[in-house]
Design brief:
Mean pLDDT: 87
Low-confidence stretches: 2-8, 247-257
Radius of gyration: 17 Å
Distance between the termini: 8 Å
Structural class: alpha/beta
Shape: globular
Helix content: 25-40%
Strand content: 5-15%
C-alpha cells in the first residue's frame, strides 16, 4: 500500500446503529439530500479511497483488476457506483452481484455499469486461489451497516464464506460485512481497508487493518456537531480523510507486495 499522511491523533466518535440511522434520516428529510444523491456521493468517495490505498503504480499485477462484491441493499448500490468510478479512474473492476435488487435506483446503477462495459460474474469461484490470482483487491459491498441478522442468508452467506479465505486485501464499505457491533468472531472477514460513510460506526472499533478512511466531507457542519463527529481536516479538495484505527494498531492482512 502507499504511504499516507499522518492520521488524526484524536480518536473518532463511533455512532451506534440508531444514531447512524437518525443522521441519515436528517440528511434525507431535513437537509433534502436525495437517496440517489447520497449513494452517488458515497460510491464516488469509496472509489477515491481505493485509489489512495492502492494507487495504480503500486498494484502487484500488471492489470489493475479489482473484484467488487455487491449485496442487494443500499451498500450494494454504493458498490455499483464505486465500481463505475473506479472504471473511470482507469482500474478494471469486475462486479459480483448475485441477488439484484428490484429497486429502480439499483437497476439504474446496474445499467450504468453494464453500459461502461464493466463485466459481471455469473458466479463467485469457491476456489479462492482463482480470486487471489485474478485480482489485486476485493471491494466488500455485500452487507454493510444494514446487514445485521442477514449475514447467514443466501447468497450473502456463500459470498462471505469465500471472502473469509481470500489472501488479497479487502476494502470494506462502511461496516465489514457480517460484523456486529459487539466482540469479534474468529470467522469474520478481516479487511485491510475500511471506508466509513458519513461517520464511523460502532463496529469500526474492532477494525485493525492498515487504512481507515472517513467519507464525510459533504456532511453539513451543524450535523457534524450534533452527532459529535470528529475528523482531521480534509486535505485540499479530497472527499475522504485518513483516520487512525482504535489504539493505533497497524494490524491487518493482505498487503500487496
Amino acid at each position: 500500500m502507499s504511504s499516507a499522511p499522518c492520521p488524526s491523533r484524536e480518536p473518532p466518535r463511533y455512532l451506534s446503529r440508531a444514531e447512524a440511522e437518525a443522521m441519515e434520516k436528517e440528511l434525507l428529510e431535513d437537509y433534502r439530500f436525495g437517496r440517489q444523491q447520497l449513494i452517488e456521493i458515497w460510491g464516488h468517495a469509496c472509489a477515491v479511497a481505493v485509489t489512495k490505498a492502492f494507487p495504480l503504480p503500486s498494484l502487484p499485477r500488471r492489470q489493475p483488476t479489482l473484484l467488487v462484491a455487491c449485496g442487494p441493499a443500499q451498500t450494494g448500490a454504493i458498490g455499483l457506483v464505486c465500481a463505475r468510478h473506479l472504471r473511470s479512474f482507469d482500474y478494471e473492476p469486475t462486479i459480483f452481484y448475485p441477488k439484484r435488487s428490484p429497486d429502480p435506483l439499483h437497476r439504474d446503477f446496474t445499467t450504468q455499469c453494464e453500459r461502461m462495459d464493466i463485466p459481471f460474474l455469473s458466479y463467485l469461484p469457491t476456489e479462492v486461489q482463482l480470486i487471489n490470482d485474478a485480482y489485486n483487491a476485493v471491494v466488500d459491498a455485500v452487507l454493510g451497516a444494514e446487514g445485521e441478522g442477514t449475514e447467514g442468508t443466501e447468497p450473502c452467506a456463500a459470498t462471505l464464506a469465500t471472502l473469509r479465505h481470500v489472501r488479497i486485501p479487502i476494502v470494506s464499505l462502511d461496516v465489514p460485512s457480517g460484523w456486529r457491533a459487539g466482540p469479534g468472531d474468529s470467522g469474520d472477514i478481516r479487511p485491510a481497508v475500511l471506508v466509513s460513510l458519513a461517520a464511523p460506526k460502532a463496529a469500526a472499533r474492532r477494525f485493525q487493518g492498515q487504512r481507515h478512511f472517513l467519507a464525510g466531507r459533504f456532511v453539513p457542519e451543524e450535523l457534524r456537531r450534533k452527532f459529535g463527529i470528529r475528523a482531521p481536516p480534509y486535505p485540499g479538495s479530497d472527499c475522504v480523510v485518513a483516520l487512525g484505527p482504535p489504539g493505533g494498531a497497524p494490524g491487518g492482512t493482505g498487503t500487496p507486495q
